[in-house]
Every structure is written in C-alpha cells, then in structure tokens.
C-alpha cells in the first residue's frame, strides 16, 4: 500500500524488524492512498465475501485512531479502528441490508508496543488475531462489499478531520483469500475450512440431496425385491480398493490387518513384536513390509573366495555451491550442498500411504499429512483420524459430524441453514426476505396448517425459537433472546490446567498459558499442553553476573553460589540495576520497575490527582489545562478531558485532547409489535400505528402459556384442568402483555 503525494505528518522510520521500513504518523496533515493504487485494491475487494486486513503497528498510549478506512461519502464500507481510551478494536462496515454496523472487540492495542493485527472475514464469520494468537471468533451480519466507484481509502485516519492514528504502522495489507492471516503468521493452523468453504460444501450437499431424492423410488423398489430374498442364503461380501472379499476373509492392507465382517470392512494396525536380532545384524525396515526385520550391516568391504577385497566407490560429483555450504553426511562418502533435495533422490517412494517426504538439513523423512496419524514409527504409513468418533471436531447444534479422509464436515440437519462454520439454525424466509409476499402484506412462518413458533424479537447469537417467546440458545449464550454471553470462567463451567488461566470470550472461552509457560504445539483445550519456559536456557532472565539462574516451574530464581556474597542486582534491557533500585521504563514512562534479589517486577504508575507531581502524560484525567481539551465536531464547543457527549447517535468522550466515539447502546424494546426511531433521536420506541413503523416484529400472532405449559392463542378460552367452574381466557393488556381471566362461580378475577 502506498501513500499519496502529500507526506506531511508522516515520516519514514525503522520498522518492527531490523532494516524494515515503517511510517510514523504524527500531526494532522495526512493524505489518502493513491487513486490508482486504491482502485486496484477496490477491484479485488468488490463483491468479495472473504478477505483479511493485516497490519503491524505500534500505537501511542490513549490514542484512538483509524488504521484503515474505505468509505464513500458518509458510508463506511470497511474501517478498522483502535481505541486506546476504551481499550477496544472496532470493525465498522456496511451490511447487505444497507445498514451501518460496528463490531467491537475489547482489547488494548494502544500500549506503545509492537503488535501484529489480523482481522479475517469469511461471509458471516470474523476472526481476530493479535500477535498470532486467536483472540476473538464471532458470527456477524454479512458485510456488503458492493463498493461504488469514487470510493476513497485512507490510511491512519478516517478523513481529513477525524480519527487520527498516532504511532507507527508497516506492512498494511488487504488480502483477498481464505485464512489470509497465514501470510502474517505462517505457523498458524491452515487446515480448518472457512465459512466461505462451507458455503460451497452446502451447495454440493444440496445437489447430492436432489440426487438422493431422485433415487429414493428406485431404492424403494429394490427393497421390495430384497424382501423376496429373505428366504435365501446370501453371503455378504466387502469391497476395498477395487477388490472383492468374502465374509470372514482376511487380508493385509499396507500396515493394517483387515477382515470382512457382516459386509463391513474392519481394519486394525499391525502390532510389531520387537525383533530379536543376532549380533551380526540389526533391525531395519524393508521395502514393502510394516515391521522391522533383522538385516546384515552395510559394509564397504566383503569377503569373496576367502579373501578380503576393497570395493572401489564411484567418484563424487562436482558440487556447484561454495565450500562453506558443503555438508558431510553420515550415510555416504560424498558431500552435498546445503539445501540439497533428498526427496528427489528416491526417498519419497518410501513414504507410501497418506505420507509425504520432508527435506531435512542432512537427509529426509516421512511425515503424515494433515488429518492422519502414523501407523509405524517412521511415518511411512499413515491412517485417517476419525475426528467425529474421537470427538476432535467443532460441530455444534443442529449439525451432524461427517468424517472425510483427512478432515471432517459439519452437515446441517434437514430444515436448517448454516450460520457459521460449525452451526446451523432453522430456515426463516420472513427474516431473510426469501418470500413472495406483497409489499403491503405481513410474512407469516407456516402454511396455516403446519406453523412454527414465533418469538418476541429475534433469537440472537444463533439461538432457535422453539415455542412462542422461547429461545433455545447456542452453547455459550443465555437470556430470553440469547443476548447474554455466559462467562464460563467465573461460572465454574471450565477447569483449566494449573499451568493455564481461563479467558472468557463471547460465546466461548480458552485456557491461556500463564506467565512462565508456553504451548508445546498440541493446543489442548484445557491447557494441558502448556509447558514450562526455561528462562535460564533461553536467556530470558534478569540475574546478574554474580548469581546463577536456576529454572523453576513457571519462573526462575537467581541463586547465589555457595561461599559467595552476591549483590542481588539485576540485568534489564542490557542495563545493570542495583538490588532495590526503582526506575521508569525507557519506552513507557507510565510503567515503574524495581529490582528485588535479582528479579525485575514492573507495574503501571498509580495516578494521584491531588499530588502536585502527578505525571499528566500518564494521568490525563488530572490535567485541567487547555492542552487536554477537545473541540466538538462543529468546532464551536470545547470539552475538558473526561467529558462525554452524544453526536450522530454516537457516544463520544474527550481524553487528553483526543476524541473517541463509539455507537450508542440502546435498551431492548420488549413486548412491542411496531417500533420507530423518532426524528432527532437514536433509539427505537413502541408505536401503535403500523403504517408509521420502521420495523414490524414477526410476533403478530401472540400467545399465552397456560398452567400446564400448553400454548393458547389470543382470545382463546378454556376450562381450567380439574376445575369445572373456572374459565380462563388469553387477553391482551393495553401495553401489549398478556393475562389470564379466571371466572369462578360467576366471579371474575384477574
């Protein structure tokens, strides 16, 4: 991405890596991305459903600024913002319903430290990574990339007057491909399919269902004919790799023993006994076998006619690389160049079933493909992992896990549609607009004979309406409309390993390794894969030269050798600190560190506004001066640090001269059929006239639930169970709620 012609307020500086270029954003004179570059980017992004925004940044503390903004007039089609005042990352976009939407992710990027940020969107699925760690994964309303011409792209601000980013940015990329975060973090898992991939799978499944429907009558007739064969003796057979096997017949397939049982192939991995080899031989794999066999050692001398003769080796080929790049191998006489392709030499054919050859520094080895596990210790033979049977899948409500070679699929149950990679919900033609009702008619769910329940407002976060005003929530959510996230960490649902800490996220959680630990690459759900970091071996300690670093579980100690009088000093950022010394970090004046017996401990500075020595940079709330004031958007009103106001249905706040705005949160409108947003206001209100309504709820057919749990329609009357003299009726109150009217022996009670 290139800047425009004007560079005022933007300076080239050293980047995150040595000798890499970055741009320092200061002041308020910036420039949008060049028109020709912007048009190329927009052409790639236009009408796409899968893209990723990548950026490496170092943002000043308390700064709230826009990283990337793609907007036309007042419509923000895609904007990524980081708020240092509210410790939040915001994704602004325009939905397919042509509404403006903001998705907020609580996280602090504005800490004056380098971070790698990735926001990946796949249809209605968004994943946020920070420093190659997956922080959030959500289902959102589908963004619209129907971007008009003359759309502008800004870097480091929203427009010429708002959203100024302060700090350093580099490697800003807009990647239009699945799992674009892989280009920023190559070590992340790239085997999981994206939401866009699943949409294609759903289409294929629908086509298969159509084929299945056309063949159902043929199967029915075949079953009728099969019934006539019940009196006959029929031997079931099995088919595998094009071969036909009889019942109870056994055979060997690669490194598995297979048999035919009741028409089904059953295979088990061959168990190899340890070979008992004589002294003049050693166990080794022989091509075409699964177990090691005793083989004579390979020697360069042999006996022939009772005499010792030397075998003359062929001359070594001439190497084309410098001598410093020559490598000596243990299994051959000739040297090779560094980076030699051993797999081409013939090792690759030994990687037989679901295995592939991998080049190493001084040779090669076999490695199982993703979704397979080794059947023998050299990984030459690998078998499929059944994620469905072993519970290693992520399929959730209303889906069925189907194992595939090397992976799995989450298939929606009949009558359900996909909402994300692993979840499905009921098909609702009314809310999706896929109906043929007249524009002056109201869409109902059902055909008048078979009807489906309608809830008071839509069930949120993928919830399903199962009874009138009753939502069944997906795992991780609760509430009347599934609007509340369950904090699995505080509610006691999760027990992480002692080396990990539970971190709650919307709809889910994860066990994150504690300080002093890191994941060993297995990424177990409960944190069992967290292992101790050896700070001593990796030189990530602060022990001074007169002490010895001693690794302990989750940390380290600086121990004094026996007989020595140690100072207890510390090494921090290649600087010597005395025991008991207190100092302020060079790159963060708001953090205070101290050295205590060789260990360095740091914390944020405590603000005391009554003190005359308070650092106003770290404590802007203590600054009453003009430098901390903010101008209103109309440039006619001045606000002090900490003041808040509402502008264009956004809540804004002034903090140390910086303005930060975020969408207003409106209270839910309950028990209301028709809503309208009055002119000059931001939140919807209940109204009675449907012609003036902005939105019409789908719960037109209101119901009551009686004392036995049965659903009753409006106006319905019934006799209370086991009481012949009590009449109940479902009636509407003036405010839209419902009540029972009981008539007991001529008296009416409410």
From TrEMBL:
GO terms for cellular component: cytoplasm; extracellular space. Residues 384-425, 452-483, 485-531, 532-567 form the EGF-like domain. Keywords: Calcium, Disulfide bond, EGF-like domain, Glycoprotein, Repeat, Signal. The keyword NAD does not apply. Pfam families: EGF, EGF_CA, Laminin_G_2, VWC. Residues 236-295, 628-687 form the VWFC domain. CDD domains: EGF_CA (cd00054). Disulfide bonds join 455-465, 473-482. GO terms for molecular function: calcium ion binding; heparin binding; protein kinase C binding. This is Neural EGFL like 2. The lineage of its organism: Eukaryota, Metazoa, Chordata, Craniata, Vertebrata. The gene is nell2b.
């Amino acid at each position: 991405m290139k800047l425009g012609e004007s560079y005022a307020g933007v300076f080239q500086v050293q980047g995150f890596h040595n000798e890499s270029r970055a741009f320092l954003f200061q002041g308020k004179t910036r420039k949008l991305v060049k028109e020709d570059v912007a048009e190329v980017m927009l052409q790639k992004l236009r009408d796409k459903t899968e893209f990723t925004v990548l950026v490496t940044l170092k943002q000043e503390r308390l700064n709230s600024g826009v990283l990337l903004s793609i907007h036309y007039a007042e419509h923000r089609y895609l904007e990524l913002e980081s708020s240092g005042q509210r410790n939040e990352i915001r994704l602004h976009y325009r939905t397919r319903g042509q509404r403006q939407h903001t998705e907020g992710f609580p996280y602090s990027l504005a800490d004056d430290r380098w971070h790698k940020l990735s926001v990946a969107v796949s249809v209605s699925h968004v994943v946020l990574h920070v420093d190659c760690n997956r922080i959030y994964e959500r289902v959102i309303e589908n963004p619209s990339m129907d971007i008009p011409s003359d759309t502008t792209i800004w870097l480091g601000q929203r427009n010429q007057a708002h959203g100024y980013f302060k700090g350093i940015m580099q490697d800003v990329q807009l990647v239009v491909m699945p799992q674009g975060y892989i280009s920023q973090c190559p070590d992340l898992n790239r085997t999981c399919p994206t939401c866009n991939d699943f949409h294609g799978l759903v289409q294929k499944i629908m086509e298969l269902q159509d084929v299945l429907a056309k063949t159902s009558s043929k199967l029915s007739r075949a079953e009728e004919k099969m019934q006539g064969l019940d009196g006959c003796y029929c031997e079931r057979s099995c088919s595998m790799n094009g071969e036909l096997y009889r019942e109870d017949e056994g055979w060997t397939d690669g490194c598995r023993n297979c048999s035919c049982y009741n028409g089904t192939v059953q295979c088990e991995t061959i168990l190899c006994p340890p070979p008992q080899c004589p002294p003049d031989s050693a166990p080794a794999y022989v091509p075409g076998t699964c177990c090691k066999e005793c083989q004579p050692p390979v020697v360069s001398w042999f006996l022939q006619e009772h005499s010792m003769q030397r075998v003359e080796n062929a001359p070594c080929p001439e190497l084309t690389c410098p001598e410093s790049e020559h490598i000596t191998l243990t299994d051959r006489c000739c040297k090779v160049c560094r980076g030699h392709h051993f797999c081409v030499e013939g090792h690759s054919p030994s990687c037989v079933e679901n295995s592939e050859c991998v080049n190493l520094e001084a040779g090669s080895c076999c490695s199982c493909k993703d979704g397979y596990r080794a059947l023998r210790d050299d990984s030459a033979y690998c078998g499929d992992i059944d994620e469905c049977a072993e519970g290693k899948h992520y399929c959730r409500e209303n889906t069925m896990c189907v194992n595939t070679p090397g992976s799995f699929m989450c298939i929606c149950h009949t009558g359900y549609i996909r909402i994300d990679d692993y979840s499905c919900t009921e098909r609702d033609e009314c809310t999706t607009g896929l109906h043929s009702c007249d524009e002056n008619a109201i869409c109902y769910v059902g055909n008048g004979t078979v009807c489906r329940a309608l809830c008071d407002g839509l069930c949120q976060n993928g919830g399903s309406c199962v009874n009138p005003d009753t939502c069944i929530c997906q795992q991780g959510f609760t509430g009347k409309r599934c609007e509340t996230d369950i904090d699995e960490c505080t509610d006691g649902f999760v027990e992480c390993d002692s080396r990990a800490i539970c971190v709650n996220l919307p709809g889910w959680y994860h066990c994150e390794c504690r300080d002093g630990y890191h994941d060993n690459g297995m990424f177990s759900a409960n944190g069992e894969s967290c292992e101790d970091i050896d700070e001593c071996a990796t030189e990530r300690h602060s022990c001074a030269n007169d002490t010895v670093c001693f690794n302990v579980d989750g940390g380290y100690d600086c121990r004094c050798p026996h007989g020595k009088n140690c100072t207890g000093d510390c090494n921090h950022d290649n600087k010597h600190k005395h025991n008991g010394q207190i100092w302020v970090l060079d790159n963060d004046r708001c953090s205070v560190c101290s050295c205590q017996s060789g260990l360095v401990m740091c914390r944020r500075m405590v603000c005391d506004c009554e003190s005359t020595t308070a650092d106003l940079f770290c404590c802007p709330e203590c600054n009453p001066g003009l430098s901390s004031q903010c101008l209103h958007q109309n440039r006619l009103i001045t606000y002090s640090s900490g003041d808040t106001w509402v502008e264009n249905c956004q809540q804004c706040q002034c903090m140390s001269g910086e303005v930060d705005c975020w969408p207003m949160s409106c209270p839910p409108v309950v028990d209301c059929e028709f809503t309208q947003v009055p002119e000059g206001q931001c939140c919807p209100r209940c109204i009675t006239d449907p012609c003036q309504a902005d939105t019409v709820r789908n719960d037109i057919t209101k119901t009551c639930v009686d004392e036995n749990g049965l659903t009753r329609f409006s106006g319905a009357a019934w006799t209370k169970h086991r009481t012949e003299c009590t009449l109940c009726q479902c009636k509407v109150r003036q405010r839209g709620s419902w009540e029972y009217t009981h008539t007991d022996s001529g008296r009416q009670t409410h």
